[in-house]
Specification:
This protein is mainly beta. It is 5% helix and 34% strand. It is built from three helices and 16 strands. A five-stranded mixed sheet has the order 9-16-15-11-12, with no helix packed on it. A hairpin with a 7-residue loop joins strand 11 and strand 12. The radius of gyration is 21 Å and the shape is globular. It starts with 21 loop residues before the first strand and ends with a strand.
C-alpha cells in the first residue's frame, strides 16, 4: 500500500502469513470446565507476558461465541509441528484462533479473562482497525471502528521472485504460490495472468477436502503459463483468488488503502525479465 500512498506500519509484503501444525488444549473445553458460557461473557480476553515501552502487556480478545464454538477449533497451543512450542512463537503457551488475524493470537499467554467487554489493550482498541481511504489521522475515531477479526481472501506468487530472469526456451513460465481466506473459507479458484491481467489461466490447486468453513490451512497452487510472444523482454505476472463464499480480490489498493496499511488483498503482481 505504501507504494500508492504512505502508511504507518511495517512493510510485510507477502510474508505476514505462515502455515504450521498446532497441538494443544481446546479453549472451548477449558472455558466449559471453568463454567463460562455466552450468558456470562461476550468476549474472551487474552494477555501476554510481553510488554511495550510503557510496561503495558500485549492483549487482544475474540468473541465468546467463537471461543465456545467447537467448529472454530481455537487452541491453547503448546506444540508446533510436533515439537514443543519455540520461544519466538510463544513458549510455553499461545492462543491459536484459526481463520483470524495474527494480532488476536496472543503469544506467551499469562491470563485469560471472560468479560462483557473487549480487551482494553491498545492493540484491540486503537490498532488493527481499518478506516476509510479518505480518513486521515486527524479525523480517525478508532472507538467507532470494529476490531479486525477474520481476514479477507488473498493470494501471492512465490515463484518466480520479483526481478528474476526467466528462460523462454520452452515458451512458458512456471508460477507457484499460496492462497488463503479467513473464517475457514476454502479457496475454490486461483487465476493467474502473464500479461498484467489482460488474459487469465486457472491454476492447479493442492489442497485437502475440509468440512464447511474449517479450511484453516493455506492452499498451494501452481501452473505453467505460456509466455506472450510480444513480451518485449519483460512480464508482469499476476494472481488472484476466489474463496468458497465467492469473495474475490480487488485489482488495486486505491479503494482499500488505509492509514495503517492493513488487509491489503489486492492482486499480487511480480515483474520479471525474459531472456
Amino acid at each position: 500500500m505504501s507504494t500508492y500512498k504512505e502508511v504507518k506500519g511495517l512493510s510485510w509484503s507477502i510474508t505476514a502469513i505462515s502455515n504450521a501444525q498446532w497441538s494443544g488444549a481446546s479453549l472451548r473445553e477449558v472455558l466449559t470446565e471453568a463454567g463460562i458460557n455466552e450468558s456470562q461473557s461476550v468476549h474472551i480476553q487474552f494477555e501476554g507476558l510481553d510488554t511495550d515501552p510503557t510496561g503495558a502487556h500485549y492483549g487482544a480478545s475474540i468473541p465468546t461465541e467463537r471461543a465456545l464454538d467447537a467448529k472454530s477449533d481455537v487452541l491453547l497451543a503448546y506444540e508446533m509441528n510436533g515439537e514443543p512450542l519455540p520461544l519466538d512463537h510463544g513458549f510455553p503457551v499461545r492462543v491459536i484462533v484459526p481463520g483470524v488475524i495474527g494480532a488476536r493470537q496472543v503469544k506467551w499467554l499469562q491470563k485469560i479473562v471472560a468479560s462483557r467487554n473487549e480487551s482494553p489493550s491498545h492493540w484491540q482498541q486503537n490498532d488493527y482497525k481499518v478506516v476509510s481511504p479518505s480518513t486521515e489521522w486527524a479525523t480517525a475515531d478508532f472507538s467507532k471502528i470494529p476490531a479486525v477479526q477474520e481476514a479477507p481472501v488473498q493470494s501471492a506468487i512465490c515463484v518466480p521472485r520479483p526481478g528474476e530472469e526467466i528462460s523462454n526456451d520452452d515458451g512458458q513460465v512456471t508460477m507457484k504460490g499460496y492462497a488463503w481466506s479467513g473464517g475457514g473459507r476454502a479457496i475454490i479458484r486461483v487465476d493467474v495472468s502473464p500479461d498484467g491481467g489482460n488474459t487469465w489461466i486457472e491454476a492447479d490447486l493442492q489442497k485437502e477436502e475440509r468440512p464447511l468453513n474449517r479450511a484453516w490451512a493455506w492452499t498451494l497452487w501452481s501452473v505453467n503459463v505460456p509466455i506472450p510472444k510480444d513480451h518485449q523482454g519483460k512480464l508482469t505476472l499476476v494472481c488472484k483468488a476466489v474463496d468458497s463464499s465467492h469473495n474475490g480480490q480487488p485489482e488495486g489498493v486505491n479503494g482499500i488503502w488505509n492509514l495503517r496499511g492493513l488487509l491489503n488483498n489486492s492482486w499480487h503482481k511480480v515483474d520479471v525479465t525474459v531472456q
